[in-house]
Write a structure and sequence with these properties.
single chain; mainly alpha
């Protein structure tokens, strides 16, 4: 499973409709129990896309995914879960304050 964080479940591979947390949950369930999660969960994106609004939703989600880059949210999509960031906490400025100020 750990190797999959570098390939299959790398952050940059996430896609709301095609490769999402349900896919990860299904892989984990199979690894841990040998059983898949219920298909009504894994099939939900396909069911939504099969509705009359599905093609428009697909286009909208794809446009949002393509327009939002990692720099907009301060994340590096090439990093894997648990990998440390290149920026340090010493890089604090008035425009980039610490998330939680140190206690007095």
């Amino acid at each position: 499973m750990n190797g999959m964080s570098l390939t299959t479940f790398k952050g940059s591979r996430y896609h709301l409709l095609d490769h999402n947390c349900n896919n990860f949950s299904n892989e984990m369930a199979q690894f841990l129990t040998g059983k898949s999660i219920p298909s009504y969960i894994t099939d939900l994106p396909a069911e939504i896309l099969a509705t009359p609004l599905g093609p428009q939703l697909r286009m909208m989600f794809d446009q949002v995914a393509n327009s939002v880059t990692a720099s907009h949210v301060g994340l590096d999509p090439s990093r894997t879960f648990g990998e440390s960031s290149a920026s340090s906490t010493d890089d604090q400025s008035p425009t980039n304050p610490p998330a939680h100020p140190p206690p007095d």
